[in-house]
Model the fold of this input.
Amino acid sequence: MTLQERKSKMAANVQDWQTSGLSQVEYARANNIKVATLRYQITRFRQTADEQPAFIQIGGISSQEIHIRYPHGVELILPAQVPAGLLRSLIHI
Done:
């Protein structure tokens, strides 16, 4: 079994368990899986789902401005020539 096939099987087990309404122990017994294996799969599946790329590549920008919108609704509009260091510090506020 390839790595991709194992990952797919792991994701399928976790999704089946989530929709089954069974406890982890009940699901593991019903599907001949060790409880520890199922718990490992759940942990790995959640970690994979939570992973986000550190940077998002943006292409095709023709604007002369950089817009930064913070989660609380404040938006900064800066000229495209803003030094990278300043931009970095504004992003990590």
The helical segments are 3-20, 24-30, 35-50, 84-91. The longest strand covers residues 65-69. Strands lie at 65-69, 75-79. The chain has a mean pLDDT of 82.
